[in-house]
Amino acid sequence: MLRHATLWLVSLFMILASTSAPAGQSVRENLIAAADAKASGEYAFARCRDLKGKPFDAKGKKTALIVGDSYACDLVNAIEENAYLRDYQISLRYIPYDCQTVIGKGAVGLIAAKDKAFCADPNHADSLQRAQEQIQQADLVIFASRWKPAVADGLPSTLGQLGLRPQQKVVVVGNKFFGKIAAQKYLRMADDELKTLRNKVNPVEAKTINEKLAKQLGKDVLFVNPHQLLCGDEASCPLFTPDLQLISYDGRHLTQAGARHVGKVLFGNSALGKM
């Protein structure tokens, strides 16, 4: 594994060295750095770890609670990179993808048998039940996850059982997906090709679940559709920002430049910008 990774990095730098134009070299340097899964992965989750389970304690500030899995961590980065929600004290309740469930009868079977012990341990995973008290305290509650189909189906009922107050603002952020990332391939492409490059993505994950959420959530819940805002109506998504920065290092989670870009798109074109 180490030998393979070393050879991959060597090949990247050989391609980089063969690029003579300074502007093109800068794009490729940025691409190599962003495609480093270890470094980008550390960036993706660092702020998340700092905010997990943080109690609200800042007097005089409004409170915002972000609830969800690693996609919630992406949202935290998108907020912080652009200095959004500065009037709020922000906390996070982290519920891993494998631990997603609903409140009520539909919860049975939504967590696989192999994950039940992990998800039941508060040292590893949070839950809607454990987070419910803080959810009720927050002025703004944002749910952001890579939604499982069954959890998306049960979300309206779950929200109804959380005891949310009429004066609370509630936002649900839908799914995003950028497909398989192939950094070595992109290094060999011209800048003009990168600007228009799009990946085909799973339409169920990227579109169907979002469309279902948009129809099912009540008028008191604001829904944000990342796929529609970032990718349009087709089942394909751009891979680079307008200034040719890689958006996602693994197809699901955002690079630093990707978080900055995604944040500007979501907050500039949805109810998030009016919080």
Automatic annotation (TrEMBL):
The keyword Signal applies. Residues 55-265 form the SGNH domain. It holds the Pfam family SGNH. The keyword Isomerase does not apply. It comes from the Bacteria. InterPro entries: SGNH. Residues 1-23 form the signal peptide. Keywords: Signal. This is SGNH domain-containing protein. It comes from Thiothrix nivea (strain ATCC 35100 / DSM 5205 / JP2).
